[in-house]
Structure formats: C-alpha cells, structure tokens
Amino acid sequence: MTDAPGRSHGRMSIRASLQPRELMQDTPDLAGAWAARVITLFPEVFPGVLGASLTGKALQEGLWRLDTLDLRTFGVGRHRNVDDTPAGGGAGMVLRADVVGAALTQAARGTPRDAARWPVIYLSPRGKPFDQTMARRFSQTDGLTLLCGRFEGVDQRVLDHFEVEEVSLGDFVLTGGEIAAMALIDATVRLIPRVLGNEASAEEESFSRGLLEFPQYTRPAVWEGREIPDILLSGHHAKIADWRQAMAERLTQERRPDLWRAYRGSHDGDPDGDQEL
Ligand code: SAH
Question: Where do runs of H (alpha helix) occur along 190-236?
Fold first, then answer.
C-alpha cells in the first residue's frame, strides 16, 4: 500500500519537466509516496488537469508524485530524432526502439524491478481495456512508468524487451498517449488513501461494487417542476440505501448488460448470471 505518511504534507511535488539528469541522481522518495513517471514528447502538457481539484491538491501535499521524462532528450543525432519510417513500408512514423529503450532504462532507475510493485505501461489501443479493477491494482503499487506513444506507435522490440504492459483507454484511436496517461493516473490516484478526502465515496461509486451509481440529487428541492424523490428526503437511512441499491441495479441492467451479468454471477451464486430480474 502507498499510504503516504503525514510528514509529506506541504511538500511541493509537481515536477512537470524533470530532466533525465535529475532522475539519475536516484533521490529516494522519503515520503514513499506513489509516483507516476511519464515518458512523453510533450512533457509541458503535464500535470495539466491532474494539477486541478483533488488530484492537484494531493499532488501539492506530496500524497503522490509526478515526474516526466522528455522523450526528445533521448533522440539521436543533431536533430534528436525519435522516429523513423516503418519497416515494410506504409504511412506514418514509428518511435525508435533505441530512443524509447534509453528513456525506459532511465525511468527504471530507482524503481523496484518487480512488475507487480512498479508496472511499466504503454498506453495503446491494442492494450487491455482500462477499468476500475486495474485502477485499484495500480493504486496499490509503489508507482508506474507510463510510455506515451505518438505517430504510428512504438517499435515492437522495445515493448517485448522491457515486458511492457499495454493498456488501452477504450476502443478508439487517440493522437497520442498523453490523454490516456492522464485518465489512468487520475482514476488511480483518487484511490490512494486520503486523496479523495471522503474515502467512503470511492466505495459507493460506479464500478466499485460492480454496479453503476444510483442517481444523485441536491438543492433546490423543486427545479423546473421536477422534484427530488420523496424517499431521499424521508430521513429513513435503511430505505434510502434500499432505494439506491434498486436504482443502481436497474441502471446497470438497462445500460450495461455485461456488468449486470457479472454482478448477478458473483452475487447470486449464479455462475453464468443470465437470470432475469
Ligand atoms: N497505429 C496505432 C495507433 C497509434 S495512435 C494503432 O493503430 O494501434 C498514437 C499513440 O496514441 C499510440 O502510440 C498510443 O500511445 C496512443 N493511443 C491511441 N489510442 C489510444 C487508446 N485508445 N488508449 C491508449 N493510448 C492510445
């Protein structure tokens, strides 16, 4: 677990453009805070949205760390080239194995060798789809190295050599891995103890219990002629919990038959989970 001790409070942890040379010093992270090391051609876009709100506050407080490695600095030749044309022909450019390899080697310095403690991830549409279970697993590591691709992607040999885990944000193609890395980091960091503030809220959220979340309401009590369901104003906590459970089940069944089948399978001793409600 990465429950950072209180002494990390007040430590400034935004290192949006950490140079490789600085990483080489292997300064141990005394607070033991969870860390993300991002390899990217665009270090300047970090921390971006991760610097806002709860994740930003937690970053400032040292509850997690963000380091970037600028892929360009590993480029070859006078122009620091990072890419070349695909072997076998075709459109676009491919990130070079030697360039990406040097960056991954640099990023590995001072990190645990054990992939369970420090996964090395390539954001890629070919990867395993990212989900809440994966976010929970990543939040229980010491940290992650995240490789952001660009152009047509990365030379396969470097992925094989470093036994990189490929993770996809979904079945669509982005221009680069940076947005996917940010999404992955955001979902992961908010599961680190104390980042979210009210920890109970993480347990009730969509996916945490295998269901989508129930509908939420707040003031005003009547808006555009629409009222808040009576039960939520009744003060009966048990009835409210029942109502929320029923709504979560209904929404999941309607919108996500895949999640619903899995949920029924794990809750009713019904292995194929095909029962109708
Ligand atoms: N030619 C590749 C796509 C390259 S897109 C293919 O067809 O599979 C350029 C980069 O954007 C990729 O290297 C990857 O890092 C990132 N990327 C694109 N779509 C992504 C997705 N769905 N999830 C995570 N990363 C993605």
Answer: 199-204
Query: According to CATH, where is 3.40.1280.10 located in the chain?
Result: 7-189
Cβ neighbour number for residue 128 with a 10 Å cutoff: 11
d(CA 231, CA 228): 8
Residue range(s) in the chain whose domain bears CATH number 1.10.1270.20: 212-268
pLDDT tens track for 173-203: 999 999 999 999 999 999 998 888 766 677 7
Q: What is the pLDDT of residues 119-169, one digit of tens each?
A: 999 999 999 999 999 999 999 999 999 999 999 999 999 999 999 999 999
Name which residue sits closest to atom 3 of ligand 1, judged by CA.
152
CATH architecture of the domain 212-268 equals Orthogonal Bundle (1.10)
CATH fold for the domain made of 7-189: Alpha/beta knot (3.40.1280)
Report the range of poorest mean pLDDT among 47-51, 164-168, 193-197, 237-241.
193-197
- CA 186 – CA 38 distance, rounded (Å): 13
Q: Whose CA is nearest to atom 5 of ligand 1?
A: 175
- Rounded distance, CA 25 to CA 36, Å? 17
pLDDT at 275: 45
Tell me the CA–centroid distance for residue 125 and ligand 1, in Å. 5
Question: Which of ligand 1's atoms lies nearest the C-alpha of 152?
Answer: 1
Quote the mean pLDDT of the chain. Answer: 89
Are 112 and 106 spatial neighbours (Cβ–Cβ below 8 Å)? no
* Cα separations in angstroms, 263 against 239, 253, 272, 273: 22, 10, 10, 7
